[in-house]
Write a structure and sequence with these properties.
Number of domains: 5
Number of strands: 72
Distance between the termini: 85 Å
Strand content: 35-45%
Number of helices: 10
CATH topology of the largest domain: Methylamine Dehydrogenase, Chain H
Structural class: mainly beta
CATH class of the largest domain: Mainly Beta
Shape: globular
Low-confidence stretches: 371-378
Radius of gyration: 30 Å
CATH architecture of the largest domain: 7 Propeller
Length: 1025
């Protein structure tokens, strides 16, 4: 029934459901849709309390102090959601069973946290950042064997490339609003919630290779091959493929013709017009590295297409491994015997009445040669933990028995933590045995579960910024170019640390979006305070912000301008005065919208020259943009016509940095370019040459940010480059890259493009966009390709038609990377898995913990994805601790203290309070700026460089601590690095030994060594005349 039939209007934007329909429909406020929606009503959830004598009493969820929302308030109404699965399981390791409810359609999932006394509170928004849309079933296991339970939820996204294009998702995707980060969006795909161990989860199904399994009803964790790592089984299929696009379009046309007086259509028979959707069941093998591979055929779990609903596990043949029973619609039930041959132990519990099966108890099996969690030496199994759970599967409940791998161990230790806190231990359990553990009054002492307070490295002191938020008005990028992979209007802001007012203290400058104002926070010595100067509103988004001898330089984006004249009239770079509120244009508008800026004295005249990067041609993505170089002459920037020849149509420059890669004292230019390589231009006394380095050449990506630093303490500057990570819909590799075809395909005169990749089914390259989205961009496409099925079988050449592509761009990786400088080549290294869970933008290389080795900080997340693409929100900023040999290990947020859940952009480090520790500022697009004070690092040596008037902070100077005959990492002072930002000029060099001297390489190449005294905390250096 239509909205108008079911509701009546009471006034402007006010409606109510008509009386006859109130039992079946409700109105729901949907701010994400910009209005209200009509929803079918469901039954309220029932919660029954057991009195221990077999009697159950229903307790309502609404108006009941037992159930409260995120804010601790009682629910005002009974939730009416289409629940398909509910599971009691201890998700936060506090010993009490929490409750997770998976709901269908647009209904939100509910994660109820148990306080240990039977009272439940909805988990805060940041605990789970996104869920499946049509949550069919859930399973809980420990995918990485870190002792923290993870949660897998299944949905309906197709895994095969044909149905992925013939089906239309059932959920409503909408344009993402800037600054909306505290909601919990739903996505029509499977979700894997990786438990961080602090009550929060990172959603990594796409990283794990589990994002799609077709229309899925049931799922279970089971270590099928008994290698110690839990695998995943799913049951799939449905009576009708109601997502079939061709059928939907045909029925829509029939209904429209009937309404117009045509032949009409009996809507009651609609379901029978859809094709059947029998699918093969799937098994995913856990590789032990947070990724899974399809083992359905190898393990004989694929019985052919069917409709599988309920699934349960039990040891049916008494051999100690768990077999599988699947209920299949219209087919006999499937009984699958597990023929694993690896050694194992089976554990059953006999608990005290009335909990005789030990429900809620946790069983741990330990190879006594491996008393630690993963990662592990290959000779040992990981520690295996599992909770006894009753029910929770889709319409199913497995037997209360567990099977654990024993590998090559002669014996293992079995620990049972009972629900009441007691513990039972079997010290020398033998493999290939079944153990029944009986709960008794003589149980061992319980495992200590008290949480040890951790002093984090950083403390959040954002209150000093007075609630500052970045301004980002909504701009609909897709009205101009419908197939953009993400919004280019939400890429800022940048931030900078610099002594703006000349008092010797580094202040903070934060960029803004269109209509907002640049903000300057004055450094008062131990804290920051907003300066009294109020700058005029920005005519476009400010991109990079930098300090110069002239004042504050800011790039200005012209991307949101809608005409060529408006683009040209928007200044590329403006100069903000440190003395008054004036802002003047210093670089005129160009054809390309400005992105990164960088400063360095690249011609050796003692003054800072300027690079201006072309980020994108407004409305012309991905046509290569030109970038510019400007020499500083008598206090003004003059175009460098000679070097500019290298930068014509260089590409979509995301980030830039002047840095001396070859150690000759002259700053080279390094560019991160979207759909291109990391480009290096070597500086030969003011003349740049495009250089090709093995290890960088051929490694193309959608690069975001770039930074340099000495990660392996060899005296050479390495490169850290940020991209989109592996938790995306499409992977990329040298042998299977992503392609971007662009040209003038429709003859409209505006550049158009198609994202594509190789489709093994078609044995060719095919577009990855959905057919309906493609038709919106190319309205004439149905004349050649009549529908969804035809499109699913079309390669890129058929889709493009007779017009050829102007160029084909590639991405051979989407990894966030480090490139170690080996002098004549670079050695590529992929950053750790935690760094691949989300896109990264800023990268900062510095010694944040004061141990004498350079670390890396990454800003993460991107929410402004294309309308049908789920946002990338699995990051919360990340610190990687360096080992001095090029290795980097993630530091969890609980220990680093660096937790930012929004979409982070520019960031920068500086020791703003002079305590010898590097602090951090992290910006968020459309949200609050975060300031973190370093409270845990070992204080290092503060080095202040006083340069000539044209380069007062010594940009381009390199510093290194010497320890007699050995040395620490090289640090370079830069203006413009990471992502659209500037780190502080006063450097802090960490050390754990006693440094004897400070080595300096000045701009131009002259070297100097200054002795240090024992315990020296600070030094000011000036270039010798």
């Amino acid at each position: 029934r239509s909205f108008g039939q079911v509701t009546r209007q009471l006034g402007p934007n006010q409606y109510e459901v008509r009386e006859p329909y109130r039992r079946d429909y409700r109105l729901a406020d949907r701010p994400d849709l910009g209005g209200i929606s009509l929803e079918q009503r469901a039954d309220p959830d029932f919660f029954y309390m057991n009195d221990g004598a077999g009697h159950f009493t229903r307790e309502p969820l609404g108006h009941n102090p037992r159930f409260v929302d995120e804010a601790g308030k009682q629910l005002t109404d009974e939730p009416e959601y289409f629940g398909l699965a509910a599971m009691f399981v201890d998700l936060n390791n506090d010993g009490a069973p929490d409750l997770y409810v998976a709901n269908d359609f647009e209904d939100p999932d509910q994660y109820w946290v148990n306080d240990g006394r039977g009272h439940f509170r909805l988990a805060p928004w940041y605990a789970v950042r996104a869920t499946s849309n049509s949550g069919m079933a859930i399973a809980v296991g420990d995918v990485n064997r870190d002792g923290a339970p993870d949660l897998f939820e299944v949905d309906m996204l197709s895994r095969d490339t044909k149905r992925l294009k013939t089906e239309i998702p059932t959920h409503t995707a909408v344009l993402k609003q800037p600054g909306t980060g505290s909601d919990r969006p739903q996505m029509q795909r499977n979700t894997l919630q990786l438990n961080r161990g602090d009550g929060t989860f990172a959603e990594i199904a796409r990283y794990a290779g589990l994002g799609a399994s077709g229309w899925t009803w049931s799922t279970e964790f089971l270590d099928v091959d008994l290698d110690g790592w839990e695998d995943i089984l799913v049951g799939t299929g449905h009576v009708s493929d109601i997502m079939d696009g061709d059928t939907q379009y045909r029925l829509r046309n029939l209904m429209s013709s009937g309404a117009a007086g045509g032949s009409g259509f009996d809507w009651r028979r609609m379901l029978f017009d859809y094709p059947p959707l029998k699918l093969p069941n799937m098994a995913f093998r856990n590789r032990g590295d947070l990724t899974f591979e399809d083992a359905s055929t190898r393990w004989r779990f694929d019985l052919g297409p069917d409709i599988s609903h309920g699934m349960a596990l039990a040891d049916l043949d008494g051999d100690g491994d768990l077999d599988v029973v699947i209920n299949r619609l219209g087919s006999p039930a499937a009984v699958l015997r597990n023929d694993a041959t690896a050694p194992r132990v089976e554990v059953r519990l006999r608990g005290k009445a009335p909990n005789t099966a030990g429900i809620g108890s946790r069983v741990t099996v330990i190879d006594v040669g491996a008393q630690h969690h993963a990662p592990l030496p290959s000779a040992h199994l990981p520690i295996q933990e599992r909770e006894i759970i009753a029910g929770g599967s889709y319409l199913s409940s497995s037997a209360a028995s567990l099977t654990f791998a024993t590998g090559a161990a002669a014996h293992v230790r079995i620990e049972v933590d009972w629900r009441d806190g007691a513990r039972s231990v079997i010290d020398s359990a033998l493999p290939n045995r079944e153990y029944e553990v009986i709960e008794s009054s003589t149980a061992n002492a319980a495992r200590l579960t008290s949480h040890v307070a951790v002093l984090p490295l950083f403390k959040d002191v954002s209150s000093q910024l007075g609630g500052h938020e970045h301004v980002e008005p909504l701009f609909n990028d897709y009205a101009r170019q419908p197939l953009l992979p993400g919004a280019l209007s939400q890429l800022g802001p940048g931030v900078a640390w610099a002594d703006i007012d000349g008092d010797g203290l580094e202040d903070l400058v934060v960029g803004t979006g269109r209509t907002g104002t640049l903000t300057w926070f004055k450094n008062l010595g131990s804290r920051l305070q907003a300066a009294s100067i109020k700058y005029p509103p920005a005519v476009g988004d400010l991109t990079t912000v930098l300090s110069s001898p002239l004042g504050i330089l800011a790039g200005v984006s012209s991307y949101e301008q809608l005409s060529a004249d408006a683009v040209r009239s928007t200044p590329s770079v403006v100069l903000y005065s440190a003395k008054n509120s004036k802002a003047i244009s210093v670089i005129p508008g160009d054809r390309a919208s400005t992105g990164p800026l960088a400063l360095a004295d690249y011609d050796g005249n003692g003054a800072l020259d300027l690079f201006v990067g072309g980020r994108v041609i407004p409305g012309g993505y991905p046509v290569p943009a030109s970038s510019r170089l400007y020499r500083s002459v008598n206090g003004s920037f003059v175009p460098d016509s000679v070097n500019d020849r290298l930068l014509g149509d260089v590409g979509l420059v995301s980030a830039a940095e002047f840095t001396d890669l070859n150690g000759d004292g002259w700053p080279d230019l390094v560019l991160a370019i979207e759909w291109n390589e990391i480009r290096v231009f070597i500086n030969n006394h003011g003349r740049f040459t495009a250089s090709v380095f093995p290890g960088l050449s051929g490694v193309t990506s959608r690069w975001n940010g770039i930074a340099t630093g000495d990660l392996d303490n060899d005296g050479r500057l390495d490169i850290v480059a940020t991209s989109w990570g592996r938790n995306t819909d499409y992977s990329a590799g040298p042998d299977d890259p992503l392609y971007l075809y662009w040209g003038f395909f429709s003859g409209s005169g505006r550049p158009e493009f198609l994202l594509a990749r190789r489709d093994p089914r078609l044995k060719g390259i095919a577009p990855v966009e959905s057919f309906d989205r493609l038709v919106a961009a190319f309205p004439a496409l149905p004349r050649r390709i009549p529908g969804f099925t035809a499109y699913a079988d079309a390669t890129i050449d058929r889709v493009i038609g007779s017009r050829r592509a102007e160029a084909v761009l590639t991405a051979t990786t989407l990894d966030n990377m480090a490139f170690l400088n080996r002098g004549d080549h670079f050695e590529a290294r992929v950053l750790p898995p935690d760094a691949q869970f989300a896109p990264a933008f800023y990268a900062g290389v510095a010694d944040f913990d004061g141990d004498g080795n350079e670390d890396v900080f990454l800003s993460q997340n991107f929410f402004a994805t294309a309308v049908p693409t789920p946002r990338f929100d699995a990051g919360r900023s990340l610190l990687l601790r360096g080992d001095g040999a090029g290795g980097l290990q993630p530091v969890d947020g609980e220990h680093s203290g660096l937790i930012v859940y929004g979409e982070q952009r520019g960031a920068a480090y500086a020791d703003y309070d002079g305590d010898g520790r590097l602090d951090l500022v992290v910006s968020e697009n459309g949200a609050a700026t975060k300031l973190f004070h370093n409270v845990g690092a070992t204080p290092g040596l503060r080095v202040r460089v006083v340069g000539p008037p044209g380069n007062p902070t010594g940009i381009g100077t390199q510093l290194q601590l010497h320890y007699g005959d050995t040395a620490g990492p090289v640090r370079e002072i830069q203006a413009g690095s990471g992502y659209w930002s500037q780190n502080g000029g006063v450097q802090v060099l960490g050390h754990t030994r006693k440094p004897t001297a400070l080595w300096i390489r000045w701009p131009g190449g002259r070297e100097q060594v200054l002795p240090l005294t024992v315990g020296q905390r600070e030094i000011t250096i000036r270039p010798q005349k």
